[in-house]
Amino acid sequence: MTSRLYIEDLSNHIGEQVTLAGWLYNKRSSGKIRFLILRDGTGLVQGVLVKNNLAEEIFNKFDELTQESSFRMTGTVRKEERAPGGYEMDVQNVEIISIAKEYPISPKDHGVDFLMDRRHLWLRSSRQHAIMRVRHEIIRSIREFFDTRGFTLMDAPIFTPAACEGTSTLFETEYFDLGKAYLTQSGQLYGEAGAMAFGKTYVFGPTFRAEKSKTRRHLTEFWMVEPEVAFNDLNDNMDLAEALLQHIVANVLKNRMPELTSLERNTAFLENVAKPLPRITYDEAVAILHKKGLPFEWGNDLGGTDETVISEEFDRPVMVHRYPSAIKAFYMKRDPENEKLALAVDVLAPEGYGEIIGGSQREDDYDLLLGRIKEHDLPQEAFDWYLDLRRYGSVPHSGFGLGVERTVSWICGLDHVRETIPFPRMIYRLTP
Ligand code: 4AD
Ligand code: MG
User: How far is the CA of 183 from the centre of ligand 1 (A)?
Assistant: First the structure.
C-alpha cells in the first residue's frame, strides 16, 4: 500500500503540496472563491478554490460535487485557525471519484428512528464519529490494562448449553442433533475455568440478553469484558474494578478530549474518577433511599430509579457491595458474616447512568454450589464441567463484568445506549 496522507497528519505538512482523498462534507461559495470541506475519517479540511488561479474545468468541479461524493483534492496546506479542523488547503486540483446520489441525511434535524434506519450512513456524522472514537479508546484501554498486568485473554464460546445469568433471558437456537443451544449471556463460567488454568484471565466479547427491557440502558447484544482472578476476594475484586475504571477514564481524558468537547461533555465528574471510589454496602444504599423518602423494601433489587437516587449522593462512581443473596446469581459466594448476603458488588456510575459493572466473589465450595444449582432449577448435567472447577483444586476467586456500551454512554454523556455501538440490537431493531 502506498503511504497515504490523512487529515490528522496535516500539521507535519504545512507549506507542502499534498493530495487528500475523502468525501464531501459540505461546500459553500462566495463568488470567485469556493470552499470544499473534505472529510477523510480522521478530520475535516477546507479546500479553497480561487477562480483566477484555476483552470475553469477544475473550478467547475465544485458544481458537480454533491454531499458525500468521493474525490481527491491536491493543494498546498496552510494553518488557518478559523477553518473547520484548523487547516486550509489552497486547491490546485480536484479529481472526482464518485458522485453521490442525493444524500438522505442533511444537516437539518432528523428523528432518531429515521437516523437509526440509516445507521450505516449516520456513522459518517461528526457526532457518531466522536462517540465511536471514544468507544475505541475505551476498548483499547481495557485491553491495555489487562495485557500490561499479566492477564491472559481467554475468549469464551457464544453458543452455550445453559444459562449463566438466569434462565428468563436466553436466546435459543436449534443445534444440530444436540438439541438446544443458547447465545451466551456472560463468559464468566468459562472465565473461571481460565482463572484456574492461568491465574489471571479476561474474557472479552459480545453477550446476549433476551429480556424485554425497553430502557435507555438495555441492548439485546452488548460487549462485556470479564476479568476473573484466582485467590482474589471481594475486596481485591473491588480494587481491580476501581483501577480499571481509573485507567479507562484517564486515557479517554488524555487522548479523546476533542471528541468529548464536540459532544459537549462536562468532564468534571470524569476528572473525579482519579480519586478513590466510595464503597458502601447494600444496607447503606437502602438507608440513602429511605433518607430520601423512597418506599424501598429491604431485599428488593435496586431498580433504575433507585440506582439514580443513590448515585446522586456521590460525585464519582460508587461501589455497592453485599446484596441480598436471594436476588443475585447462583454462583455468588455468601458472606460468612451474614448468610442472607452475597459477596457481590455493582458499580453505579454517577449522573444517573446506573450499573456499569456487576461482579462477585464466587462460591468455591462444591456442595454449596451444587445446592445452589438445584435451588435455581438449573440443568445439572450442563454444569458438571463447572463443578469440576470445585472438584479439582478449588480456590477462592472473584471477577466482574463491565458493560462497554453503558460505559461509553456514561463517559460520552449520552442519553441512550443505542448510539454507543456501531449497529445496535434492541427489541425493536435488527437492521441495518
Ligand atoms: O450484572 P451482569 O448481568 O453480570 C454478569 O453477567 C456477570 N456474569 C459478570 C461477571 O461477574 N463476570 O452484567 C454485567 C454488566 C452490567 O453491569 C452492565 O454494564 C452490562 O453488563 N449489561 C448490559 N449492557 C447493555 N445492555 C444490557 N441488556 C445489559 N445487561 C448487562
Ligand atoms: Mg448486574
Answer: 14
| CA–CA gap between residue 310 and residue 305 (Å, rounded) | 9
Q: Helix, strand, coil shares of the chain as percentages rounded to 5?
A: 35, 30, 35
Q: How far is CA 237 from CA 5, 165, 347, 400, in A?
A: 45, 19, 11, 7
How confident is the model over 173-231, as pLDDT tens digits?
A: 999 999 999 999 999 999 999 999 999 999 999 999 998 988 999 999 999 999 999 99
CB 80 within 8 A of CB 89: no
Cα–chain-centroid distance for residue 59? 44
Give the residue, by CA position, lying nearest to ligand 1 atom 24.
Answer: 403
Average pLDDT over residues 381-390: 95
Mean pLDDT of 6-26: 96
Q: 400-418: per-residue pLDDT in tens?
A: 999 999 999 999 999 999 9
Report the alpha-carbon distance of residue 15 to residue 405 in Å, rounded. Answer: 42
Nearest CA to ligand 1 atom 9: 401
CATH number for domain 119-420, candidates 3.90.1150.10, 3.30.930.10, 2.60.34.10, 3.40.50.1000:
3.30.930.10
Residues of the chain with CATH 2.40.50.140: 7-98
Examine the pLDDT at 1 and tell me if it is beyond 70.
no
Question: What are 49-87's pLDDT values in tens digits?
Answer: 999 999 999 999 999 999 999 999 999 999 999 988 889
> Max Cα separation, the chain?
87
- Rg of the chain over all Cα atoms, to the nearest angstrom: 26
Look at ligand 1, atom 20, and give the residue with the nearest C-alpha. 403
Q: What is the pLDDT of residue 2?
A: 64
How many angstroms is it from 117 CA to the middle of ligand 2?
Answer: 30
Q: Ligand 1 test: best mutation among 224, 301, 330, most atoms within 8 Å of CB? A: 224
Q: Among the bound ligands, name the one nearest to the CA of residue 361.
A: 1
Question: What is the CATH number that goes with domain 7-98?
Answer: 2.40.50.140
Could you tell me where in the chain the CATH 3.30.930.10 domains are found?
119-420
What are the tens digits of pLDDT across the range 237-253? 999 999 999 999 999 99
